[in-house]
Amino acid sequence: MTNFLLFSSTVLIWGTTWIAIALQIGPVPVLVSVFYRFATAALIFLVVLVVMGRLKVPPLRQQPFILAQALCLFCCNFLCFYHAASYVPSGLISVVFSLATIYNAVNARIFFGDRISPRTLLAAALGATGLVLLFGMDILVSMNPDSWKGIGLSALGTLFFSLGNMASRRNSADGVPPITANAWGMSYGALTLFALILGTGTPIVAPPTATYLAAMLYLAAIGSVVGFTTYLMMVSRMGSQKAAYATVLFPVVALTLSSLFEDYHWTPLGVLGLMLTLAGNAVMFARLPMRRPVLAAEAVDLKG
Question: How far apart are alpha carbons 178 and 181 in whole angstroms?
Fold first, then answer.
């Protein structure tokens, strides 16, 4: 039951964050928008943990891996996603993000020695074909460079997300609870973003509208504090590959919202592409029939 609640909460929360990200694109520089999000999230997280008496400072030996998690999950990936939202509808970004299941399988092999099964290759082929169909009109017909930029940034952001999963998996195995890693990770991410703002001379623009402010607060409190906590608890309980399966359902929620609020139009090829992409992810986690063990008596009969 706990795993189901974590899974469903993550799907519902992160399936809606893409449209909130799109609402922040405008006069406020992307770097500043991402900083607002994680500075607010870090403040909320730290205050809550202090009030609950659960704020702990991880030992020095664990700090480099918490910093790695921070840079991948609370900084670099969202810089990519926010920039991608300038080029393609937010729902399509979520489709690219759903390939995190494939990324996690490959990275788990690289960093933890997990086996890559043949169905991982099948899933990758289905997912790639689905993306071509979803973006095909813009890429193959009109050669829209914005679509290429949006896809590339989304793919890079998903890679950072997956690497953050690996860091989180390592932190959990080393005894760092997800809420502790998140609280300090978001703080480190916000500090890094602020340093980038100062280093690049990016102007700090105040939230211009009530809509922007509401989207920022939703992304900080619900999308970041609650969403990342439920997701990384799944990583800790279920493993990075199974937890990433939640991303399979994000596009269904995100593309529905995109069609309502961003004037995204479904086409037959787009529907087929979404189905193939989801199928590719589903193949990753389809339950295989278990082989019935051969009993000793049956083994004797087979030999005789």
Answer: 5
- Report the chain's C-alpha Rg in angstroms: 21
Angstrom distance (rounded) from CA 148 to CA 158? 15
Predicted confidence (pLDDT) per residue in 80-121, tens digit: 999 999 888 887 888 788 788 788 888 999 999 988 777 777
The C-alpha atoms of residue 179 and residue 232 are separated, in whole angstroms, by: 9
- The number of residues making up the chain comes to 304
Q: Return the structure tokens found at 250.
A: 């994000």
Q: How far apart are CA 124 and CA 132, in angstroms?
A: 12
Is the pTM higher than 0.90? The answer reads no
CA nearest 41: which of 247, 198, 189, 202? 189
For residues 281 and 98, give the distance between their C-alpha atoms in angstroms, rounded to a whole number: 8
Q: Which amino acid is at 105?
A: A
Within 13 Å of residue 256, how many CA atoms lie on the same side as its CB?
8
What is the token pair recorded at 159? 């890679």
Contact 91, 262 (CB under 8 A): yes
